[in-house]
Amino acid sequence: MTDHRTAPRFDTTTEAGIVTVHCTGEVDLGSACRFRDVLLAPIHAGALGVVADLTGTTFCDSTVFSALAEAFRAAAARDVPYAIAAGEVAVVRPLHILGLDRVLPLHAGLDAAHAAVRSAGVRTAAPAGP
Fold first, then answer.
1. Cα–Cα distance, 114 to 82 (Å, whole number)
2. What is each CA distance from 72 to 4, 122, 130, in whole angstroms?
3. pTM above 0.85, yes or no
4. Is the dihedral of CA 35, 38, 42, 44 positive or negative?
5. By C-alpha distance, which of 52, 39, 53, 49 is closest to 16?
6. Dihedrals phi, psi of 112, to nearest 5 degrees
7. In this predicted model, what pLDDT tens digit does every residue of 49-67 receive, in sequence order?
8. Which of 49, 56, 58, 38 is nearest to 83 (CA)?
């Protein structure tokens, strides 16, 4: 029997202070803790915004959803704009079934997630009026 699983890979890129955590492959209980740590690190370090890019994720289990929710709470507590980009059915469908798509800042693609984070950053960084 051949195992056709795609090992998860986590990379980060930074542009204009916004950190994008790219997650590709299959993420499950064995790798979700690493994903969580990579996702929380820029939030705790004071990034201007964080995007979780799951557009290349082909499978994830509930532990990944817990990590996404924890990052959302951490970002909100630190006033760090946060968004999730997910285009694969393997990610979007379970989020929809669980109702998390109504709670988490989920976007259909990476460009939309970046736009949401930039927009939120502009609002929070705007000077107060007279």
1. 9
2. 32, 19, 32
3. yes
4. positive
5. 49
6. -65, -40
7. 999 999 999 999 899 999 9
8. 49
